[in-house]
Amino acid sequence: xxxxxxxxxxxxxxxxxxxxxxxxxxxxxxxxxxxxxxxxxxxxxxxxxxxxxxxxxxxxxxxxxxxxxxxxxxxxxxxxxxxxxxxxxxxxxxxxxxxxxxxxxxxxxxxxxxxxxxxxxxxxxxxxxxxxxxxxxxxxxxxxxxxxxxxxxxxxxxxxxxxxxxxxxxxxxxxxxxxxxxxxxxxxxxxxxxxxxxxxxxxxxx
Length: 206
Description:
Layout: E1 7-8, H1 10-15, E2 29-30, H2 32-44, E3 47-48, H3 49-60, H4 68-80, E4 84-90, E5 96-102, H5 104-138, H6 145-166
Antiparallel strand pairs: 1-2, 3-5, 4-5
C-alpha cells in the first residue's frame, strides 16, 4: 500500500508538458487505497473487479481484507474522475464482465508519482522493517533472542531475494530448459545445476 495520508496530484499535473492529456482528470487528490488500486491495475494491465479484489487481498497479506462494497465504489469514482477505462468482455463461464485498465493520463500520473517519491518510499520501508524486526525480537525472552534474530535475518534475506527476482530488469534471463535454473554465465554451455546443455558450442564463438 502506498505510504502517506493523501497523494496530492496538483503539483505533478502542473509540471506535465502534455497538459491536454489530463483534461479528463477531475480529482486532484488520491487516498492511499485509491493509489494502491491504480498500482494493482497497472501491474495487471487489465483486470476484472473480482480478480482485483483477490489481488488486493494478496497485496495486504491478511492485514486488511478487500470487499466488493469497498472496491467497486472506488473503481466507479476513479472511472468518473478520468483514471480508468472500463470495457465489457465475454466471460468463459457466463455473462459479460467488466474489466478495468488505466487511461493514458492515469498511467502517466502513476509513473510520475512513483518516480518522484521512490527514494523516500524505499527509505520509509527500510525504517519500518528495522523497527518492526527490532520490536519483534525484543518481544521474546532474552534466552530466545539470538535464535529469533537469526530467524528474522533469514526471513528478511528471503524476502529481499524474492523482491529482486520479481523486479523486471529489462533483460531476458537465460534459464535452463531442463531445470529452469538461472544461467549466470551467458557464455556457459551447460547448466551448473543439472548439467543439461543450454547452448550449442558454435554459439559461444559468435
